[in-house]
Amino acid sequence: xxxxxxxxxxxxxxxxxxxxxxxxxxxxxxxxxxxxxxxxxxxxxxxxxxxxxxxxxxxxxxxxxxxxxxxxxxxxxxxxxxxxxxxxxxxxxxxxxxxxxxxxxxxxxxxxxxxxxxxxxxxxxxxxxxxxxxxxxxxxxxxxxxxxxxxxxxxxxxxxxxxxxxxxxxxxxxxxxxxxxxxxxxxxxxxxxxxxxxxxxxxxxxxxxxxxxxxxxxxxxxxxxxxxxxxxxxxxxxxxxxxxxxxxxxxxxxxxxxxxxxxxxxxxxxxxxxxxxxxxxxxxxxxxxxxxxxxxxxxxxxxxxxxxxxxxxxxxxxxxxxxxxxxxxxxxxxxxxxxxxxxxxxxxxxxx
Length: 352
Hints:
With 352 residues, this protein is mainly β.
């Protein structure tokens, strides 16, 4: 435990110098550890759980949703897991046990995001239609965060290739408008307003391009393909997290961030390190496709997947790390991310 204390003090000092001084955060890191201080080490879910999207439901539990996986030869279309503390997760099976009729003959159910409104849970995801003409955006609903979710009966939007993937729903706290972000397939990340029923796009609305791919062979560039958008709003700034550019073959993948004063942009990408805030290291390969969740001390945590470098057969497992909001208005991940060593866990009041 003493070694952990010294490590945390050192990390806090580094963050204060290099990440822009934040007095409250620095004070939190400098608090001495007690025997009751919860700790964790990545991964927090050590099985295949790609593209994790985490929400906190009305029951106080955290729910994580992920892309399909196969367990003992049985497909789980949309994975769902539950946690009280963001560290210990219980798999709960398939949130979408019945395929939609329009995608009943295919097996590509990707990157879900769930949004709750007035007791209804809306799950946005991507699926391959029976025609196999290109992936579609889809939406399903349930009255329980575990599901079962039922598809609305027809796709939300279809197109060629895998352009229409990785949806993320976001309610703008300033305008009250409902938006859906999505995109990949070597096209820009897009946003479009949703209708009041959240089951279709608003009449007369059109998609707007936000983040464009840039072909660059440099090894530290990850924007050949951009995907996995996640938007948060904090201190008057909209932060758009996104990933690129190869999740699953050579796993040249990383998380980047952009910011704006409007939910619909224009967004400016973090000028340093080509926008990258989490990239692979000796401990983790291909980190990316993140969500963001807030703990009970108002600290934001980035949740994302990565491969064990020497055990890719395990799949993309789930990791978390603390986010740091700097004095210059930018956000980055804590030093060393993606981490494997022991860190202070998210503060969750209920478990104490």
